[in-house]
Design a protein that fits this description.
By secondary structure, the chain is an alpha/beta fold. Helix content is 35%, strand content 30%.
C-alpha cells in the first residue's frame, strides 16, 4: 500500500539494529514508502511479472533452505532476476549468512543487503507495525487530548473557552494528559485514530494567568501518556440563550477526522458547570455505548413501557 509519507531506510536500520552487509549507492537517500513487504519465493524461481519495487524484501528460513539445495550456478540464476529488480533493500533474517551468489548479484546490481537476528515472522510483524505508524495519514488539530478511564477524549473549542483549565481538573481527578494545544492525529488502519503531542511541547500546558506548566513535573509520571486512541470528541462552546441542547442523548453525532467517524458531543459552557466531571461522565457513557449499553435508549424504552401499561390500565377501567 503506497503512502504520501515515507521513512528513511537508515532510520529503520537504526530502529531495529540491523546489520548492514552491503550498502547500495542510494542507501543514505533511500525512502521506504509502503508497509507491505515481500518474501521473494516466486521471484527466486523466475516469476517477476508482478513485482512492487517499493516493498522491502525479506529472506527467511524457508527461502534459505530452498536455495541451500541448489548448486552455486543454480543459485546465481535464482538471485539474478531478483537483484535486477528495483527495491529498497533485502533483509536476511535469523542471522543467516547470505549466499555468496546473493552478494555477488547485489554487487552487480547495486542492491542494499541487511541482516537481523530476529525470527522472520516476528520481525516482519514488528516492522509492519512500525511502518504503519511511520506512514500513517496524519493531521494536526488545535485542541486537548486526555485519556479518561481508557477512553481517549479530544476536546475542541474556541480559544479561551477553557479547554486547558478543564484538562487540568481532569488530570487532578486521576486521568492523563496526552497533548495540549496541538494534537497530532494519525489514522491507524481503517477506523482507528491515535493522537500524540508534538515533541517540542510534549507534557507542557499553557494556562492563562499562570503561563506554561510541566504536567509531568507537577503531577508525576502517572499524569501523562505519550499516545492514546481517539474515542470521543467533546466540543466546548459558550452557552447560548435560546439554543436547543440534547437533553436525552438519543441523537448520535459524529466528527469526521481523516475519514474516520468519531462519536462527538457538544457541551455548553457557563459559570457553575463542572466541565471536568461532565466530560468524565461523557467518556464513561461513550464506553458503555461501545460495549452495547445505551442509557438514553434504555430510559426511553422504560418510559414508553410505563405509558403503554398506564394506557392499558385506563382502557380496562
Amino acid at each position: 500500500m503506497e503512502s504520501m509519507y515515507s521513512v528513511k531506510l537508515t532510520d529503520l536500520v537504526e530502529e531495529y539494529g540491523l546489520e548492514v552487509l552491503r550498502k547500495g549507492s542510494n542507501y543514505e537517500s533511500c525512502e521506504v514508502e509502503t508497509y507491505d513487504m515481500n518474501r521473494p519465493g516466486l521471484q527466486l524461481i523466475g516469476y517477476v511479472d508482478y513485482f512492487d519495487p517499493l516493498r522491502l524484501q525479506v529472506l527467511g528460513k524457508v527461502e534459505y533452505t530452498f536455495l541451500k539445495g541448489f548448486s552455486p550456478e543454480e543459485r546465481r540464476k535464482c538471485f539474478e532476476p531478483l537483484m535486477a529488480l528495483q527495491f529498497p533493500a533485502l533483509i536476511v533474517c535469523r542471522g543467516m549468512d547470505p549466499f555468496p551468489e546473493c552478494m555477488e548479484m547485489a554487487e552487480k546490481y547495486d542492491r542494499t543487503i541487511l541482516r537481523t537476528q530476529e525470527v522472520t515472522t516476528a520481525f516482519m510483524g514488528s516492522l509492519i507495525t512500525s511502518l504503519r505508524n511511520h506512514l500513517a495519514p496524519r493531521i494536526t488539530r488545535h485542541g486537548v487530548l486526555v485519556e479518561i478511564y481508557g477512553e481517549g477524549v479530544l476536546i475542541y473549542g474556541e480559544s479561551g473557552v477553557g479547554k486547558s483549565e478543564t484538562a487540568i481538573e481532569i488530570i487532578k481527578r486521576g486521568h492523563r494528559l496526552i497533548a495540549d494545544d496541538a494534537v497530532e492525529i494519525k489514522r491507524m488502519g481503517d477506523n482507528q485514530l491515535v493522537g500524540n503531542a508534538p515533541e517540542l511541547i510534549r507534557h507542557y500546558m499553557e494556562l492563562r494567568g499562570i503561563g506554561v506548566v510541566d504536567v509531568r513535573q507537577l503531577f508525576g509520571m502517572s499524569a501523562i501518556k505519550d499516545t492514546a486512541s481517539i474515542d470521543l470528541v467533546v466540543n466546548l462552546e459558550p452557552w447560548r440563550e435560546g439554543a436547543v441542547y440534547d437533553r436525552l442523548g438519543l441523537e448520535e453525532l459524529h466528527t469526521n477526522i481523516l475519514d474516520v467517524e468519531v462519536p462527538s458531543v457538544t457541551i455548553p459552557v457557563k459559570p457553575g458547570r463542572n466541565l471536568a466531571v461532565i466530560i468524565e461522565v461523557a467518556a464513561m457513557n461513550n464506553r458503555h455505548k461501545r460495549m452495547g449499553y445505551n442509557a438514553a435508549q434504555a430510559f426511553t424504552e422504560q418510559i414508553n413501557k410505563y405509558f403503554d401499561e398506564a394506557m392499558a390500565q385506563q382502557e380496562k377501567e
